[in-house]
Amino acid sequence: PMYLGGDWSEATSGGWFEVVDPATLQIIGEVPQGGTEEARQAVEAAATAFPGWASLSGRERSRYLLQISEKMRRATDEIASQITAEAGKPLKQARDEARSASAYMGWYGEEAKRLYGQYIPSAQRDKRVMVIRKPVGVVAAITPWNFPLGLLVRKVAAALAAGCTVVCKPAPETPLVALLFARLCQEAGLPAGVLNVITGDAEAIGQVWLSDSRVRALSFTGSNEVGKILARKAADRLLRVSLELGGSAPYIVFDDAGLDAAIAGLFKSKIRNAGQVCAAPNRIYVQSGLYENFLAALKKMVQSVKIGNGFHPESQMGPLINEAGYRKVESMVGEVKEQGAQIFEGGTLVGEPDDHQGWFYLPQIVTGLSENSQLVQQEAFGPVFPVLPFKDEKEVVERANRSPYGLGAYVFTRNVNRTFRLAEQLEVGILGINDPLPAAIEAPFGGIKESGYGRESGAAGLNDFVEERTVSIQLMDDLSE
After folding, report:
1. CB atoms < 10 A from the CB of 238, how many?
2. pLDDT tens-digit profile of 359-398?
3. Cα separation of 420 and 354, whole Å?
């Protein structure tokens, strides 16, 4: 059931929908088909809980978050098994996500103590000016399936630390781990209504949250198309919105890069979660002097990838999330193949044949394709490696920045001067220099251009959930005289 106002609830409609394991296509659970009524109940619960939660000191809120973090840490194996069953990712990757989510909650538990304001020296002798930061109110969080716990906790932890209460809707593909998280929050003693988790009709739920004046902020991670729809509707009442949308990350390898490091980086950043990562490399640019050696090494790498059910101990890559995701990647690769591109397919299946009934897509290298092809310009969200040669730094920067998206980018080089130039020239929100996994709990994460706005993680992650209030104090003469 859903978690609303501290209670476990079914939908008033009596409807349920199935959750399917993408590796076996077996039904692993059912959750309520919530809608308008449940969305209102969630907001009512969060709005009722807000004054009490906001009035707690930062240290008091910190205790709750740290208790939740510890509950999550102890439940790592249970959480990881749930993630693998719902999302299909290998168990090791699921454990990494569970540990990371626990660490996020703990980090913001500490940050709750440090919601600092500012003292501003006044230009007038008889005035004192300060800025205080207050929670915005009820926050609505809508999260995707590719990191079903990690991306939910990023939003919830920061919002709770800021003193906000939360209503959240996980993706229909992966709702069970979000409800497991709610159970752990309840067990940790989080007051009723501070966190509410609803499942069901995305359009009906979203419409309620967009129109209810008690919802003061909306945080969304997902597709560019849905993000734009939410932003347009939120504009009707100037609802504060933060959006972490898709990308088309360039992965730039210069002649002076360490070949082994660049290939290993692609394994970590592109094979992870079968390429279903918003900041995963989508366009692989390799300088002409290294191109042939790079391609040969990349082929060996994709051939070595072990693919199978995430519960199989040898599995390094699981399935895509569903048929729609599979067909999208299949169509994009098919299109460039018809246009003359060359396809190299890799991967080694592990496990019994019955373990491969789901949406498994073998990793593929694509060469000889146009810069303007859909596979290069749009996010494939799969284990596909489009490789394109380039001549020099100026050329590749121009090509990389040509995209309307600006979430992440990766550069492999040993040239220190080039490192600083590209850090300033590449139009992205997060950049990894010889680092395939640049995201960090303590540093802001988010995009620019059509990849969205707002930041998660780090101290900046609190900014979307607080408002600044300027207080000017006029000093008065001593009234006792």
Report:
1. 7
2. 999 999 999 999 999 999 999 999 999 999 999 999 999 9
3. 50
What is the reported pLDDT for 46?
98
Report pLDDT digits (tens) over 1-53. Answer: 999 999 999 999 999 999 999 999 999 999 999 999 999 999 999 999 999 99
As annotated, the active-site residues are 244, 278
Report which residue type is found at 333: V
Give the integer Cα–Cα distance in Å for 154 and 461.
Answer: 8
The pLDDT assigned to 478 comes to 65
User: How far is the C-alpha of 169 from the C-alpha of 175, rounded, in Å?
Assistant: 8
For residue 310, give every residue at least 6 positions away whose Cβ sits within 8 Å of its Cβ, in sequence order, or none.
23, 84, 88, 89, 90, 91, 93, 94, 318
Helices marked H in 212-290: 224-234, 259-266
CB atoms within 10 A of CB 352: 10
Confidence at residue 337, expressed as pLDDT on a 0 to 100 scale: 96
Distance from the Cα of residue 236 to its chain's centroid: 26
Q: Tell me the two tokens of residue 195.
A: 């966190």
Which amino acid does the sequence have at 22?
P
Question: How distant, in Å, are the alpha carbons of 85, 149, 236 from that of 142?
Answer: 21, 12, 19
Cα(44)–Cα(193) distance, integer angstroms? 8
DSSP state at residue 415? -
Regions of the chain short of the pLDDT cut 50: none
Q: Cβ neighbours of residue 336 under 8 Å, at least 6 residues apart?
A: 366, 369, 370, 373, 374, 375, 386
**Inter-residue contact 307 to 89 (CB < 8 Å):** no
CB of 13 closer than 8 Å to CB of 36:
no
Two structure tokens written together for 348: 């080694």
Q: What angle do CA 303, 308, 272 make, to 5 degrees?
A: 70
Q: Measured between alpha carbons, how far apart are the two ends of the chain, in Å? A: 67
The answer for residues whose C-beta is within 8 angstroms of residue 272's C-beta and 6 or more apart is 93, 280
Would you state the structure tokens that stand for residue 372, as one six-digit string? 């303007």
Backbone phi, psi, residue 206, to 5°: -60, -40
Host H or E run for residue 237: none
Neighbour-count burial of 275, counting CB atoms closer than 10 A to its CB (0-12 exposed, 13-18 middle, 19+ buried): buried
Q: What per-residue confidence (pLDDT) applies to 353?
A: 81
Q: What is the pLDDT of residue 282?
A: 96
* Residue 456: strand, helix, or coil: strand
Which are the contacts of 55, defined by CB distance < 8 A and separation ≥ 6?
none
